[in-house]
Structures are given as structure tokens and as C-alpha cells.
What does this fold into?
Amino acid sequence: MGDVSCHGGPGVDCAVATRPMEGQEISGDSFACKPFEGGTFLSVIDGLGHGTKAAAASKVAKETMERHPSEPLIDLVRRCDSEMRHTRGAVASLARFDTSRGTLSWIGVGNVEGVLFRRGEDGTVRKEGLALRGGVIGYMLPPLKTWTFEVRAGDLLVLATDGIAGAFMDNIDYQAEPREIVETLMRDYGKSGDDALVVAARYLGGGEVGD
It folds into this structure.
């Protein structure tokens, strides 16, 4: 397993764990993490298949996203789709923390799972699952829709490729540090027969709603 640095900026504490499929040296899974004025952009990307061609597809998506982190998410997905036409394509989920407004927006194409833990005014923690649309960026986009939620300091976002078994969503320690969360999920739910990557991001506040 490899831990990769993820600099979420002043408003977000994030960590990443990744490993290639057993027998492979390169992973087709990748992530984008880019702070910008007023927020932080995050994405988890899964290039179709395995090996170098999958990695090439996810690299194009990552680089495109990190060049345009503040662009509306639907526009950014469409930009990636155009840039990736010469690749085998990828699935991805994209998220943006807006620290000036205290919100999180996200969108998913394909099967990169996402879950958001939000603390209510009464202190209870609610879990929101990312609604995914079937399709492939670079080949066949579905109708696109962005969801936006208010977030508070301490709220937690977790994104994972399908190399992490789906049961992970019901077994996340919300109060743990992001690095501990990704290490635990990779250890307990990572599949040896697939590339795997998981990101955990804790919102630290700084927005009008979340303060």
C-alpha cells in the first residue's frame, strides 16, 4: 500500500491510500487534489482496465482537473470528456469544498463511490451517499447533475474506486483522522484483484455556514 501526499489547502485535511492490482507495478487509479482561492477541489479517477493504458487515461483526467479546479463541475466533466477522447476513458467522482460559502458540491460518472458525513445542529451525524450515473468520461457521458450540501467544521468526505469493497461505506470511523481512515479502509476492504484508491477529506471550516 502506498500513502500519497494530498495538500487540501487551509480549509481541508485530506489523506490518500493507493495500491495497484496484485502483480502490477502501475495503477490505473488516480486522484486530483487542488486548493484554489475560496476552496479545494478533489477527485478520484479510475482509468478503464489496468496497467499503462488505464494509467494514461486517469493521468489526462487528473491533469485537466487540476488545471481548472474552480470551474463548475459539469463543465469540468465535459472538458475532461473532450480531452480524453484519445484514451480508453475513465470513471470519476469530483467534489469541491467551497470554504467561502461552507458548502460541498459533487458529481459522479461511473462507479467511484462517495459518502459524506455531516454533523447537524443537534450534533447527530448524517450520511449522504453520492448518486452515481452510469457512463464513461471520454467515451459516453450520461446526463449530468451536481448536488450541493452545506458543511460544517468536522464533516468528512470519503471517495473510493471499486478496488475498495462497497461495504466500506458502512464501516468508516467518522471521528478518526483522515490518514487512519484511508489506511484502515485499504487494509480491510482493498481488493487484491483490482487497482484500489481511497481519499478521506475532513472539512476544517472557514465558511459562513460551517462556522
In short: The CA atoms of residues 84 and 138 lie 5 Å apart. The domain at 2-203 is CATH 3.60.40.10 (Phosphatase 2c; domain 1). Residues 207-211 have pLDDT under 50 and may be disordered.
